[in-house]
Design brief:
Blueprint lengths: L3 E4 L6 E5 L9 H8 L5 H9 L3 E3 L16 E5 L6 E4 L7 E4 L3 E6 L16 H8 L23 E7 L2 H12 L4 E9 L6 E5 L2 E3 L7 E3 L9 E12 L2 E10 L6 H8 L21 E9 L6 E5 L4 H5 L12
Parallel strand pairs: 8-15
Antiparallel strand pairs: 1-5, 2-4, 3-4, 6-7, 7-8, 9-14, 9-15, 10-13, 11-12, 13-14, 15-16
Helix pairs in contact: 1-2
Length: 322
């Protein structure tokens, strides 16, 4: 039970970029976003403020400094902050557990693994207290973590205890052999009773912390089947109860696809509207896969969350229909 994670500080390599002569009056942070798309704009702005970015050998005055064109920009990513993630006695709702794996009903508001700003209080912290052993295939900072759910998303999450199970489960996710069905509360009334969104998803070209449907060939294939299970009213807003089945696993897939249809999720401050909800109303309702050791198909349904019930979703809701 005393197991812990340790993140060791290291020296990050520097990267050099040449600003095109034509890029006059371009903001420094905007230019960095085009060169380092895997980082968010706010993170790159922090790097500038911390002195990790040099423009022609000088520390810029601010992230929004305008470039003249032709400058040489040197970027050194800050070394990882030393971190020790302790095992913590936090509540975990187990749906299933054996020697190879366990399935959790993750609570809304709980981060899956430690990261900047969330060194404690995560699922991993709780798992380290609960389990003597977890798979290390995913790395020291993500023991046992085969897949993730957003912080505000509740529901089924499978965790691997052994490296063997981690490899087999990861392959099932990659090969799209896992059954993943979600419940969502989406704003507005849909025109049809069911449908499919088959639209590629990638990083938003401007707002780098967001994902978006991309039609320029830069997105990755993504498919979501949806079915309307009912309609209700939430604090004066018309809301649809939607069952979503994922046939791919892109970041924010359901949130982006529902917004693409014009029905962002209730409570989603990024792609929809808060509209009086405390979190994005998305619940990983059912998860099914072949047991990595026996090959038997096993399937789990997560109980309806209290905030879904409070919003008017009936407790007697039946099992997923597709």
């Amino acid at each position: 039970m005393g197991r812990y994670l340790e993140r060791v500080s290291g020296v990050a390599p520097s990267r050099e970029f040449q600003v095109p002569a034509t890029d006059t009056r371009v903001r420094l942070d905007q230019f960095l976003c085009t060169q380092i798309p895997e980082k968010s704009r706010s993170q790159l702005q922090d790097w500038v403020r911390e002195g990790c970015v040099l423009v022609d050998g000088e520390i810029p005055s601010k992230p929004g400094e305008r470039l003249r064109g032709g400058e040489t920009i040197l970027v050194r990513e800050p070394a990882p902050v030393p971190m020790v993630a302790q095992a913590e006695d936090l509540p975990l709702e187990l749906l299933y557990e054996d020697e190879e794996l366990l399935v959790l009903n993750k609570a809304a508001g709980m981060v899956v693994h430690p990261a900047v700003g969330n060194w404690s209080g995560t699922v991993v912290n709780a798992l380290l207290h609960h389990c003597e052993d977890l798979s290390e295939t995913g790395g020291q900072e993500r023991p046992g973590i085969v897949h993730r759910l957003d912080k505000e998303t509740s529901g089924c999450l499978v965790v691997a205890k052994t490296d063997f199970s981690h490899r087999v489960l990861s392959a099932q996710f990659a090969d799209r052999k896992v059954r993943k069905i979600y419940l969502a509360l989406a704003l507005g009334a849909f025109r049809g009773a069911s449908g499919t969104v088959d639209a590629p998803i990638g990083r938003h070209p401007v707002h780098r912390q967001k994902m978006a449907v991309l039609t320029d060939g830069k997105g990755r294939e993504a498919r979501t089947d949806w079915r309307i299970l009912g309609e209700l009213e939430f604090k004066g807003a018309q809301v649809s109860l939607v069952q979503c089945r994922l046939h791919s696993g892109r970041t924010h897939q359901i949130r982006v696809h529902m917004a693409h249809l014009g029905h962002g999720l209730l409570g989603d401050a990024v792609y929809g509207k808060r509209a009086g909800a405390d979190r994005q109303m998305l619940h990983a309702w059912q998860l099914g896969f072949s047991h990595p050791r026996t090959g038997d198909w096993i399937q789990f349904t997560s109980p309806l969350p209290a905030d879904f019930r409070a919003a008017g979703v009936p407790v007697s809701l039946t099992e997923p229909t597709n």
